């Protein structure tokens, strides 16, 4: 049974704009943008969860002792190159496991989109990735891109994604799954009320999983859909007060989160719609007394924050769709640069916590790594940190290996892990890239 959930924002929908070509290269190029605010969502599970039999049974639990540190050289490469894969970290019987679900292979065509999954025991010395049961599906096509995964204790939760047909039609998938590392089996959980792909996710109180925005078949949404792992139900939190985007990144520490960037849809007169980077960062604080209430605030963008003076900035949008900041003190124009599909996570610090963003690309692209503007995309070589104690961006730091096309970052024993993704020249990687934390930083897991 469906019931509306009341919020401060009224429901609204933007109309769709048809393009002239019925056989456009991408489904996303044909229809106008969508915006759902305060939409009607299910307050309970849409169906009883069903067990999905594992395709294969490969043991991934070992009796190795938990190690105290991780060595970059001991992080094994994936069995094959994969990008746009959903990643998660889970723990079971004193072991910690890095998981990779679905994605696209080295060829970067629709035929390379798959539903394969692998697990790596981070606790076992010289461990190698092992194949685990393939991700189930209800859509005719098995492979999925742009799914998101979150690990809570010994379970991984996998949400959304889209399939790519031979004619390049892209369909957002509604089915979601809980994966158990101990049994190597999936259980189908409640469907998303609004199916999204290319969303980003964060967990709260080891119970709630927040999906921020994303793409829904015909356009972006600015919904915050919240899954309750204890009740197998969905609700809606305060929507995102910014242009709806896909391919954004988020990190959370406690009840504080930072959401950055993504790609918005630009409607054009007498022309096909286009995609433009959206250099917008938001700070959100979850109400401790009501997990569905988020207090949102606009942040200065990390790419220009070191140039912003103490005077209150006035923000405008420049002709090339990049955010510009005009300070009243200097009256100088500074252009912000967004990054698409960064890896992000939250970490603890001695002062309180930081949200860290790694890599991404300043040229939004299709699943092949080619930009929507027709130019090849390249990864960004910097990382950005937002300090939650001072509410300021810290000095960017350089990555030893640039990368893009990530669905999140994992923090494990004093290292950030980026699993797969694309390297320079859109090269699909099978590496697990590690970036060490500073001495005053630690993982939140």
Write the layout of secondary structure elements.
Layout: E1 50-52, E2 86-92, E3 95-104, E4 113-121, E5 130-132, E6 148-152, E7 155-159, E8 162-164, E9 170-172, E10 176-180, E11 185-189, E12 200-204, E13 208-212, E14 215-216, E15 219-220, E16 224-228, E17 233-237, E18 249-253, E19 256-260, E20 263-268, E21 271-277, E22 281-287, E23 290-299, E24 313-317, E25 323-327, E26 333-335, E27 343-349, E28 354-358, E29 382-387, E30 392-393, E31 397-398, E32 410-412, E33 415-419, E34 432-436, E35 441-443
Antiparallel strand pairs: 1-11, 2-3, 3-4, 4-5, 6-7, 7-10, 8-9, 10-11, 12-13, 13-16, 14-15, 16-17, 18-19, 19-22, 20-21, 22-23, 24-25, 25-26, 27-28, 27-35, 28-29, 29-30, 29-31, 32-33, 33-34
Care to describe what's here?
By secondary structure, this protein is mainly beta. The protein contains no helices and 35 strands. It has strands at residues 50-52, 86-92, 95-104, 113-121, 130-132, 148-152, 155-159, 162-164, 170-172, 176-180, 185-189, 200-204, 208-212, 215-216, 219-220, 224-228, 233-237, 249-253, 256-260, 263-268, 271-277, 281-287, 290-299, 313-317, 323-327, 333-335, 343-349, 354-358, 382-387, 392-393, 397-398, 410-412, 415-419, 432-436, 441-443. The strands form 10 sheets. Strands 27, 28, 29, 30, 31 and 35 form a 6-stranded antiparallel beta sheet that branches. A hairpin with a 5-residue loop joins β24 (313-317) and β25 (323-327). The radius of gyration is 21 Å and the shape is globular. Mean pLDDT is 83; it is low at 1-33, 37-73 and 308-332.
């Amino acid at each position: 049974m469906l019931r509306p959930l009341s919020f401060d924002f009224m429901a609204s929908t933007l109309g769709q704009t048809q393009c002239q070509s019925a056989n456009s290269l991408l489904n996303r190029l044909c229809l106008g943008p969508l915006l759902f605010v305060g939409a009607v969502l299910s307050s309970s599970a849409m169906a009883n969860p069903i067990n999905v039999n594992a395709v294969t049974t490969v043991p991934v639990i070992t009796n190795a002792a938990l190690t105290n540190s991780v060595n970059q050289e001991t992080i094994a490469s994936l069995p094959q190159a994969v990008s746009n894969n959903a990643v998660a970290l889970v723990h079971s019987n004193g072991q910690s496991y890095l998981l990779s679900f679905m994605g696209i292979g080295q060829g970067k065509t629709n035929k390379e989109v798959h539903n394969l999954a692998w697990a790596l025991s981070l606790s076992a010395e010289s461990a190698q990735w092992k194949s685990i049961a393939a991700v189930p599906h209800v859509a005719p096509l098995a492979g999925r891109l742009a799914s998101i995964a979150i690990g809570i204790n010994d379970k991984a939760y996998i949400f959304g994604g889209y399939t790519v047909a031979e004619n390049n039609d892209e369909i957002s998938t509604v089915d979601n799954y809980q994966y158990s590392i101990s049994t190597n089996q999936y259980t189908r959980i409640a469907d998303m009320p609004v199916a999204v792909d290319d969303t980003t996710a964060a967990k709260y109180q080891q119970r709630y999983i927040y999906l921020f925005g994303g793409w829904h078949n015909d356009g972006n949404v600015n919904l915050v859909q919240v899954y309750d792992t204890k009740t197998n139900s969905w609700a809606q939190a305060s929507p995102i007060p910014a242009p709806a985007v896909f391919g954004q990144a988020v990190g959370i520490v406690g009840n504080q989160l930072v959401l950055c960037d993504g790609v918005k849809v630009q409607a054009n007169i007498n022309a096909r719609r286009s995609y433009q980077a959206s250099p917008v960062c938001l700070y959100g604080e979850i109400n401790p007394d009501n997990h569905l209430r988020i207090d949102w605030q606009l942040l200065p963008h990390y790419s220009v924050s070191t140039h912003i003076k103490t005077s209150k900035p006035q923000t405008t949008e420049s002709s090339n769709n990049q955010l510009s900041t005009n300070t009243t003190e200097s009256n100088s124009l500074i252009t912000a640069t967004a990054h698409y599909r960064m890896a992000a996570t939250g970490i603890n610090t001695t002062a309180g916590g930081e949200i860290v963003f790694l890599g991404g690309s300043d040229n939004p692209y299709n699943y092949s790594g080619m930009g929507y503007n027709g130019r090849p995309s390249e990864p960004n070589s910097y990382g950005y940190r937002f300090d939650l104690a001072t509410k300021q961006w810290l000095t960017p730091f350089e990555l030893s290996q640039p990368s893009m096309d990530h669905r999140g970052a994992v923090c494990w024993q004093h290292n950030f892990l980026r699993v797969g993704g694309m390297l320079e020249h859109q090269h699909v990687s099978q590496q697990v890239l590690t970036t060490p934390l500073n001495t005053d930083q630690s993982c939140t897991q």
